[in-house]
UniProtKB/TrEMBL annotation:
TM annotation in the entry: none
Native source species: Trichoderma guizhouense
Protein name: Oxaloacetase-like protein
Low complexity bias: start-end ranges: 1-16
Residue span of region Disordered: 1-20
InterPro entries: ICL/PEPM (IPR039556), Isocitrate_lyase_ph_CS (IPR018523), Pyrv/PenolPyrv_kinase-like_dom (IPR015813), Pyrv_kinase-like_dom_sf (IPR040442)
Length: 314
């Protein structure tokens, strides 16, 4: 799938047809056997920082979206609109870098799942994960989860795959099962196999607890690539990139990579204001530094290219 540079009047500014982020992600999965490393981002700022550091792609955490956009726990508060809007903003900060975005349960029955895939596709999202939890879902690393039947899960994935194919989109459909906690490993594998048969591109076993399980899910799902959700201090032990690669995973996401350090840093600064009356912020963090992180250079270039001098003295 490619898109053109045509503008609203139908004029093509450039002959080039850049490859979409979805196509890029799909190629990373099919044309190499490397592990794709994606840090979690929860807003535009954390996404900009990840882009500055440079990664294969980014992962938009639903837990982080609930926390940052809504100030709520990961308990199904975020609607399709909340998630899509957030994902679109992040995906388009640098459309060359693939974004995988959480799509929870797909937000309803087959029609809503199809709508979710279409909207994520149009928003520039490269991949999304859809799970088998009930609609009143919760973070996969909390107790008391409930899952729908394997048939309902398979219908969600079929609807997602059909929507992808109808759009001739390369968007990568990732099937996530949360069944390990309540139904055990065999059932979780059965569900992922059913999802792969229904057209999922990638399998995601949520809350994997041991290296044996990890190795076995990669082995038994092959040739379907498997994603590792590296949530620190949750159900899954902390494994390094090298260990994840050795276990056979093809994508590793870190949902809390930005959230946890942000909490620590923000809270300690707020406490300092309360206790000492100053923020004691790093003196190199000027307003200009902040705006540079979030695209001052690109904004200036657009203005200059249009013949302006608005930001000459910034
Ligand atoms: C991957 C996840 O869906 C997310 O929203 O980032 C969460 C992460 C978390 O809350 O621990 C999940 O694993 O359910």
């Amino acid at each position: 799938m490619t898109y053109t540079n045509g503008n609203a009047n139908g004029h093509n500014g450039h002959a080039a047809t850049p490859t979409s982020a979805a196509t890029r992600l799909r190629k990373m999965l099919t044309e190499s056997d490397e592990l794709i490393v994606m840090p979690g981002v929860y807003d535009g700022f954390s996404a900009r920082i990840a882009l500055e550091v440079g990664f294969d792609g980014l992962y938009m955490t639903g837990a982080g979206t609930c926390a940052s956009k809504l100030g709520q726990p990961d308990l199904g508060f975020a609607s399709l609109n909340d998630m899509r809007e957030h994902a679109e903003m992040i995906a388009n900060l640098n459309p060359r870098i693939p974004l995988i975005a959480d799509a929870d349960t797909g937000y309803g029955g087959p029609n809503m799942v199809a709508r979710t895939v279409a909207q994520y596709h149009r928003s520039g999202v490269a991949g999304l994960h859809i799970e088998d939890q009930i609609q009143t879902k919760r973070c996969g690393h909390l107790g008391g989860k409930e899952v729908v039947s394997v048939d309902v899960f398979q219908q969600r994935i079929s609807a997602a795959a059909a929507a992808r194919d109808k759009l001739a989109s390369d968007i990568v459909i990732i099937a996530r099962t949360d069944a390990l906690q309540t139904h055990g490993f065999e059932e979780a594998i059965r569900r992922l196999k059913a999802a792969a048969a229904a057209g999922a591109d990638v399998a995601f076993l949520e809350g994997v607890t041991t290296k044996e399980e990890a190795r076995e899910v990669c082995r038994s799902l092959a040739p379907t690539p498997v994603l590792l959700n590296m949530v620190e201090n949750g159900a899954t032990p902390s494994w390094t990139v090298a260990e994840a690669r050795e276990l056979g995973f093809r994508i590793i996401i870190y949902p809390f990579a930005a959230l946890a350090p942000a909490y620590e840093a923000i809270r300690s600064t707020y406490l300092r204001i309360k206790e000492t009356g100053v923020t004691d912020i790093d003196p190199t963090f000027t307003p200009k530094k902040l705006f540079t992180v979030v695209g001052l250079k690109e904004a200036t270039a657009v203005d200059v290219a249009a013949g302006g001098q608005l930001y000459e003295k910034v």
